[in-house]
Design a protein that fits this description.
Length: 316
């Protein structure tokens, strides 16, 4: 039995169940959302590599002593219409599964990206037609709707912040500054791309509960990152009051209908808003620098493990 594929399979199982659950339940990500986001991305990437790598390494065992040799000899064997001696049905099945899974994940990512871009372009056209620019706030548009909604509409070169008349009516100037700073942080930090990758992961494995858990955890983290950016502009009390007012006044269904991809940053659901408010009110100090460095180092090492195993000297 190949040590490589067993190790990769064990890693895939660990990253598919216990590790994401422990991370989702941990308290430290709220103290370092950027670092936690790096760890989540490492888990997702390594999990995918481990799943495909375990199948691929087991399937290529008869074709060579390592991944490079196996991949080099595979096309020749297929063209010759023969398999190496000692090949088993389970190995060919695993090889086919690795190829199909890899194609499935890549196609899902591509289609998710294309659909999101298409939806975003349509939404931008509608916003241009149904809203008016706010001269006092560059790259901000006002939509005449009573629901308090604020969201960022990202673009390739230029992003637009959309505010509703209902939002402006219930917030004072400082609270509105907090909202705008929060939304612009989403644009400048390209949070939509991060969420897109996890949305594709969830879409490619809809039966996989960890994919949904990872998407939800990452969605909270990007909100916390945007909150941290807004805290540089306004006080924590102002930010807390803006989140609380919008969350209490805005029906979730209405907010989702007004925002692209069915998401809204400030008009978040109650559990999301509660977690963000609790984080700001409690005043938990940021995670210490050594701990953040350690977490990032672990994430890098995690990605390096399947790479090292797959390019190692031997499968056996």
């Amino acid at each position: 039995m190949t040590i490589t594929w067993v190790a990769l399979a064990a890693l895939a199982i660990a990253l598919a169940w216990p590790v994401p659950i422990l991370l989702a339940r941990a308290a430290w990500p709220a103290r370092a959302p950027g670092t936690a986001l790096v760890v989540w991305q490492a888990i997702a990437l390594t999990g995918g590599l481990s799943m495909i790598g375990a199948l691929l390494s087991y399937g290529l065992t008869p074709f060579g002593g390592n991944m490079v040799e196996g991949l080099r000899s595979l096309p020749g064997s297929l063209l010759a219409g023969s398999l190496p001696s000692g090949s088993e049905f389970s190995q060919m099945f695993a090889l086919s599964g690795a190829i199909l899974l890899g194609i499935h994940l890549l196609l899902t990512l591509a289609t998710t990206f294309v659909r999101a871009e298409r939806s975003r372009r349509r939404h931008r056209q509608l916003v241009t037609l149904l809203s008016s620019p706010m001269p006092e706030r560059p790259d901000t548009r006002l939509i005449d709707h009573e629901a308090p909604v604020a969201y960022c509409l990202p673009g390739t070169t230029r992003s637009v912040t959309v505010l509703s008349a209902g939002l402006i009516a219930i917030l004072d100037d400082e609270q509105l500054r907090a909202v705008v700073a929060h939304e612009r942080a989403h644009a400048t930090q390209r949070h939509h791309l991060v969420l897109l990758a996890f949305r594709a992961w969830r879409g490619s494995l809809p039966w996989f509960p960890i994919a949904t858990r990872a998407h939800d955890a990452v969605a909270i983290l990007v909100e916390m990152l945007a909150d941290d950016q807004a805290r540089r502009v306004v006080s924590d009390d102002t930010l807390v009051s803006s989140i609380a007012i919008v969350a209490s006044e805005s029906p979730d269904a209405t907010a989702a209908a007004l925002t692209p991809d069915g998401s809204s940053a400030l008009a978040a659901d109650s559990p999301s808003a509660s977690r963000r408010i609790a984080r700001l009110v409690d005043g938990v100090p940021p995670l210490a620098l050594p701990a953040r460095i350690f977490a990032v180092a672990c994430a890098i090492a995690l990605v390096a493990v399947p790479t090292a195993l797959l390019t190692g000297p031997a499968f056996r």
